[in-house]
Structures are given as structure tokens and as C-alpha cells.
Design goal:
It is a single chain. This protein is an all-alpha fold and 137 residues long. It has two domains: 19-96, Helicase, Ruva Protein, domain 3, CATH 1.10.8.640; 98-129. Helix content is 58%, strand content 0%. The mean pLDDT is 82.
Amino acid sequence: MRKLLGMLTLLALAMPAIAIDDIQAFDDPELQARYEEIISEVRCLKCQNQTIKDSNAFLAGDLRREIRRMLEEGFSDKEIYDFLVERYGEFALYRPRTSGKTLILWIAPGLLLLGGIAVLGGVLRKRMNMPIDEDGA
């Protein structure tokens, strides 16, 4: 039993050492930083709740290789994001761009917050104006 527990402990400790991105790092630290930033901002289209940096899905690996190729060929970050949006839609980006299509995504949280505050204020105002029941019932 001790051996099994020891092996499981070692296996659990070794898990973080398994790298998802098996591609060799860029020689240029600036290029590597750009690569890391971009893959942290792109959604895995299969997993949908992970970035392609964190996903081990086949599609995420393909996208990482494609982004790497584009960086090596001198594409700008904007050109890479434009390519991804053109091919997969705004959903591919964790932070959709502000445009006519996505404007509601940027405005809705503020409107919902203001609406909630207005409703809370109305409920509190009604409760404060309610007559006090002297029977205690």
C-alpha cells in the first residue's frame, strides 16, 4: 500500500512537468513574449473554456503552430487576430473587439448593473414607505 501511495504521489508531482506546448521556444525573447500573449488571448474552439495555451486539443495545437508560423513570417499581432476572426469569428478571441456586432457584449453588463441598482432602490423605497403594523402580526 505504501508503494502504491508513493507512486501516486510521485505521479501527481510530475503532472505539471508535462508541457502542453511542445514547440521549441523562439530564440528572440520579444517574439516569444508576443507568441505567449497571443496564445493566451485565443479561445480553444473545441474546449471553449480554455485558451489554446492551456488546451491539449488537436485543434489548439494546430492553431499554436499556425500562429508560430505567422510570427516567423513577420505578421503583426493585428494581422494574426484578423486572420483568426476571419476564419473562426469573434468567438475565437477571449476579448472580442469593440464593433457594432459586439457592442451589446460590452454595454450589457453596465446596463444590467444599473437596472439591478434601480430595482433594489425601488424595493427599498417601497419598504420604507410601508405602514408599520402595530399588532406585531
